[in-house]
From TrEMBL:
It comes from Albidovulum sediminicola. PANTHER family: 4-HYDROXYTHREONINE-4-PHOSPHATE DEHYDROGENASE (PTHR30004), D-THREONATE 4-PHOSPHATE DEHYDROGENASE (PTHR30004:SF6). This is 4-hydroxythreonine-4-phosphate dehydrogenase. Its main location: cytoplasm. It catalyses: 4-(phosphooxy)-L-threonine + NAD(+) = 3-amino-2-oxopropyl phosphate + CO2 + NADH. Binds 1 divalent metal cation per subunit. Can use ions such as Zn(2+), Mg(2+) or Co(2+). Substrate binds at residues 134-135, 272, 281, 290. Catalyzes the NAD(P)-dependent oxidation of 4-(phosphooxy)-L-threonine (HTP) into 2-amino-3-oxo-4-(phosphooxy)butyric acid which spontaneously decarboxylates to form 3-amino-2-oxopropyl phosphate (AHAP). Its EC number is 1.1.1.262. InterPro entries: PdxA, PdxA_fam.
Length: 329
């Protein structure tokens, strides 16, 4: 048997147990096998009926679990999980599993963290969860003020500067400080976690045609270009601001390593068009590696055997690769 790629497996959180997280974890284990080890943190009662699993006491034990068994670091929940019907009684432990995974990776007992999808409303209703999502909670656990959300697949990496806000609020939220921080964290993440020595970053404009010299908006001239000029003067390889409608065809993508966009859909539409099933959510700026599949809890298909594990498999593989580049394995 080939030796495992890493001695320190990735910690996979259970996410919302009434969603597709448990079943995709089992399918990911069947695909990855023992040579790309991870362990699942959650309540074994929430796994699909018939799942072969083995309880472990520490993450490192996952490397010795047979490939047809899911290594499980047990975390008991108050209630069973009914597919498609989140139970508020379980909300606090969903949050607790995330905190436990972060603690494990920060203590060197896991190489990285991959998080299964959560349902923010369920966590708010059941546990008073006060964060907009995973990313902000992870930043708080790590004591980091700012992080960046990157979506990545083999053909494209994108970073939205503003994320989960209405489109009408984007111009006011888009500040020079926010844009500069986003670009710097993107550059640092490409070097540290993707092994690029001189990353090339393309930056989109906010308006159609990148403002067309002020005819369609002034944000490019007044805000975006001065930031890019300042960073270029430091030696960063930055292009832009570019019209977003010409940035994402194959020829354009060959000219950069990541695209920084101004708002959520400007970034996520192209990557989900290119690789809907295989995209990975990466958090840059944390002191540890965190990835996540780029989909939600999918309550409508939970428990029906229809969930596609492709994004979770890609997230686990990317987490392990990033951890190796950061010397965490």
């Amino acid at each position: 048997m080939t030796a495992p790629r890493t001695a320190f497996p990735v910690a996979l959180t259970c996410g919302e147990p009434s969603g597709i997280g448990p079943e995709t974890a089992v399918r990911a284990r069947a695909i990855l096998g023992p040579n790309e080890p991870f362990f699942w943190i959650g309540d074994p009662r929430h796994l699909p009926d018939g799942t072969r699993w083995r309880e472990i006491a520490a993450g490192a034990e996952a490397t010795s679990v047979p490939g047809d068994c899911l290594p499980v670091l047990r975390h008991d929940f108050p209630a069973p999980a009914i597919p498609g019907r989140p139970d508020p009684a379980n909300a606090a432990e969903v949050v607790g599993v995330i905190a436990r995974a972060v603690d494990l990776v920060r203590r060197g007992e896991a190489a990285a963290v991959t998080t299964a999808p959560i349902n923010k409303k369920a966590l708010k209703d059941g546990a008073g969860f006060a964060f907009p999502g995973h990313t902000e909670y992870l930043a708080a656990l790590a004591g980091v003020e700012r992080v960046v959300m990157m979506l990545a697949c083999p053909g494209l990496r994108v970073v939205p500067t503003t994320i989960h806000i209405p489109l009408s609020e984007v111009p006011a939220a888009l500040t020079a400080d926010l844009l500069e921080t986003t670009i710097r964290l993107t550059r640092d993440g490409l070097i540290e976690s993707f092994g690029l020595t001189a990353p090339r970053i393309a930056v989109a404009g906010l308006n159609p045609h990148a403002g067309e010299g002020g005819a369609m908006g002034w944000e490019e001239i007044a805000l975006i270009t001065p930031v890019l000029d300042r960073l270029r003067a430091e030696g960063m390889a930055i292009s832009g601001p570019l019209p977003a409608d010409t940035m994402f065809h194959a020829g354009a993508r060959a000219g950069y390593d990541a695209a920084v966009c101004m708002y959520h859909d400007q970034a996520l539409i192209p990557i989900k068009t290119i690789d809907f099933a295989g995209g990975v959510n990466v958090t840059l700026g944390l002191p540890f590696v965190r990835t996540s599949p780029d989909h939600g809890t999918a309550f409508d298909i939970a428990g029906k055997g229809l969930a596609d594990p492709s994004s979770l498999v890609a997230a686990l593989r990317m987490a392990a690769d990033m951890a190796r580049l950061r010397g965490r394995t």
